[in-house]
C-alpha cells in the first residue's frame, strides 16, 4: 500500500511554464545556485509583472512530480526555487515531499494570497496591496520582499513588516526601470537600517 501511495504522489502533475538552472537573482540568497520551477497560473495580476505569460494556467504543459524531481537532482543546485505565476494556487505537498526525500533544499516565492500547502526551507513573501496575503502566512515568512514604485508602497511594506517574525529579512526592491522607485528605496534604506535594498541582478547580467 505504501508503495502504491508513493507512486501516486510521484505521478502528480503540475502546469510548468519553464524549468532552468541559474543563480538566484534577487532577495537574500542572491548569487546562489538555484534550480527554478516556474509554475503556471496567477490571479494576483501585478501590472509590472515580468512573467505575465505565466498567468494562464491551461496554456502550459503538465509535468509529473517524478520528472521535476529528477531534473532538479540532475542540476545539483544549492536549492530548488518554486516560483510562478503564483505557485500557491497549487497544492505543492507532493512535489516538496519528493524534493525533500531526494535531499534537496526548497525555497518558495509567493505573494501569499493562497493557502500554504507544502514543506519549505525558506519562504520569500512578496505581498501585493491589491490582493493581500492570507494572515497566517506572514508569520511563516523568512523573507519579506516588497516591490516599490511609489511612496505608498513603502507604507504598505511597513504595515506588512509588523506581521512577520522579528528574525525575517526585510527587503525593498525597486520596480524594474522605475527611477522613482530606486530613489525611494535608496533614501529609505539609508534612514531605516533594518531594511535592505534588493536588486534584480539577473536582469543586469542578462540571464534568467
Automatic annotation (TrEMBL):
Coiled coil: none annotated. It catalyses: 6-carboxy-5,6,7,8-tetrahydropterin + H(+) = 7-carboxy-7-carbaguanine + NH4(+). Its EC number is 4.3.99.3. S-adenosyl-L-methionine binds at residues 48-50, 85, 126-128. Substrate binds at residues 23-25, 38, 83. Homodimer. This is 7-carboxy-7-deazaguanine synthase. It comes from Phormidesmis priestleyi Ana. The gene is queE.
Amino acid at each position: 500500500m505504501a508503495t502504491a501511495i508513493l507512486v501516486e504522489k510521484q505521478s502528480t502533475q503540475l502546469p510548468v511554464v519553464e524549468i532552468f538552472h541559474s543563480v538566484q537573482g534577487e532577495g537574500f540568497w542572491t548569487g546562489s545556485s538555484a534550480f527554478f520551477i516556474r509554475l503556471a497560473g496567477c490571479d494576483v495580476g501585478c501590472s509590472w509583472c515580468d512573467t505575465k505569460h505565466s498567468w494562464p494556467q491551461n496554456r502550459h504543459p503538465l509535468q509529473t512530480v517524478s520528472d521535476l524531481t529528477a531534473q532538479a537532482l540532475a542540476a545539483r543546485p544549492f536549492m530548488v526555487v518554486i516560483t510562478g505565476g503564483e505557485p500557491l494556487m497549487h497544492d505543492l505537498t507532493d512535489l516538496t515531499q519528493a524534493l525533500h526525500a531526494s535531499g534537496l533544499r526548497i525555497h518558495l516565492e509567493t505573494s501569499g494570497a493562497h493557502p500554504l500547502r507544502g514543506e519549505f526551507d525558506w519562504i520569500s513573501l512578496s505581498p501585493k496591496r491589491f490582493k493581500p496575503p492570507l494572515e497566517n502566512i506572514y508569520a511563516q515568512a523568512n523573507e519579506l520582499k516588497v516591490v516599490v514604485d511609489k511612496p505608498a508602497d513603502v507604507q504598505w511594506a511597513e504595515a506588512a513588516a509588523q506581521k512577520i517574525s522579528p528574525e525575517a529579512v526585510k527587503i525593498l526592491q525597486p520596480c524594474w526601470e522605475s527611477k522613482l522607485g530606486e530613489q525611494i528605496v535608496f533614501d529609505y534604506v539609508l534612514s531605516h537600517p533594518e531594511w535592505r535594498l534588493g536588486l534584480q541582478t539577473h536582469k543586469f547580467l542578462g540571464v534568467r
